[in-house]
Amino acid sequence: MNSIPVLEVKNLSKRFGDRGAAGLKNISFSISDGETLAAVGASGSGKTTLARLIMRLAESDEGSIRLQGQDITVLHSELLRPLRPRFQMVFQDPLAAFNPRASVRRILEDPLRLHGLAAKEEYDAVIGATLERVGLSADLMARFPLELSGGQRQRVAIARAILTKPALIVLDEPVSALDVSVRAQILNLLLDLQEETGVAYLFISHDLAVVRAFADRMIVLEEGRIVESGITDEVLANPLADATRVLIDAVPRLSA
Asked: pLDDT tens-digit profile of 119-177?
């Protein structure tokens, strides 16, 4: 395992003037190759803000974000572009993340073209192989997002994320909108891809039953602060923070 963390966050803070937005206060953690760290917390705890800051979709006020040892908080626009393939994101609602007028082929072609990852004549072969890698038929290339099921759309979102061979994928509630049976299939797919590639995951969630099955370690956020962290099984077996106990109590099979 590489001694340099895939992701290292130090003293990250974000303040909002709007009271409705959740900020962050002095957040620090790291994630290694092939590891899954879950960031959990109730609504308004700062989970989504954390994901947006790490993806550089918003700017932090203080602290640093290092991707494979490189500080990406100081990089802007053109300097950040070459690093974009290294860190990708899968959203809770892939339908909202896709252009509904773009076919699956176009959705998956965009990162290949933008980052120069394949020659134009190779697009169909690369896209077809990637679809099959996430359990979809290459025949779906001509379909549009609205013609797919929720599980199929999330598989396309995962395919788009892995096309760039990232070191880190931020998973923002990736299964919360799916049926229980489909949820298990998507989680198993993500675990298989991680075992195959060594990709690291930051898993944003409020569902501790899913976190227990999926994450190696976890941090618990409350009002923008980390109030508890540790190995997932140990935190869930012996929670120290009130916020963690509240989340556990919301899941009967964990609190029983």
From this structure: 999 999 999 999 999 999 999 999 999 999 999 999 999 999 999 999 999 999 988 87
The CATH class, in words, for 7-97+167-255 is alpha beta
Map out the domains of the chain as residue ranges. Answer: 7-97+167-255
Within 9-58, residue ranges assigned H as helices are 47-54
Residues 6 or more apart from 191 whose CB is under 8 A from it? Answer: 214
Looking at the chain, list the stretches that DSSP marks H as alpha helix, in order from N- to C-terminal side: 47-54, 94-97, 104-114, 123-133, 150-162, 180-197, 208-214, 232-237, 242-249, 252-255
How far is it, in rounded angstroms, from Cα 32 to Cα 198?
A: 9
pLDDT in tens, 83-118: 999 999 998 888 888 998 999 999 999 999 989 999
> Order of strands across the sheet with 7-14?
24-31, 7-14, 62-67, 70-71
Cβ proximity of 163 and 110 under 8 Å: no
* Burial zone of 88 (CB within 10 Å; 0-12 exposed, 13-18 middle, 19+ buried): buried
Residue whose pair of structure tokens reads 């290294």 in the numeric block: 86
Q: How far apart are CA 150 and CA 40, in angstroms?
A: 23
